[in-house]
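// run 5 | inverse folding | seed 20
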């Protein structure tokens, strides 16, 4: 399978530009006739490249693993990026994940408070029981 079929618009990639800069970003378009992908750069060792489109040869790119976003701060950052890029579907997906994580966290917190009981060497304290 060739890289044109492997990479699609909006996929996260990392690689090296033709100038040797390390970049991470997402694919805007793939030009299979020229063998390049136009990547919107979100991280790079060249700070001037961040926030710009870079034409990168397909053989220098590899797909990044999507992974899970356990950190709420990362999720908020991705939501910001979805807003900036006006990607409504991605925004909706990310906000649904955020709501799910917040609900899970609040359920976990409420279980912690309900199951708390003060215990000392004499046993459970009646003060905490209601």
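// decoded
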């Amino acid at each position: 399978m060739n890289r044109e079929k492997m990479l699609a618009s909006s996929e996260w990639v990392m690689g090296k530009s033709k100038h040797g800069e390390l970049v991470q970003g997402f694919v805007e378009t793939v030009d299979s006739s020229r063998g390049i992908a136009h990547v919107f750069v979100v991280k790079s060792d060249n700070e001037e490249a961040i926030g710009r489109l870079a034409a990168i040869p397909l053989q220098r790119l590899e797909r990044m693993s999507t992974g899970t976003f356990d950190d709420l701060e990362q999720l908020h950052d991705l939501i910001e990026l979805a807003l900036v890029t006006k990607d409504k579907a991605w925004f909706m997906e990310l906000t649904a994940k955020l709501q799910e994580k917040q609900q899970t966290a609040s359920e976990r917190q409420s279980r912690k408070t309900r199951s708390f009981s003060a215990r000392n060497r004499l046993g459970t304290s009646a003060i905490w029981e209601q």
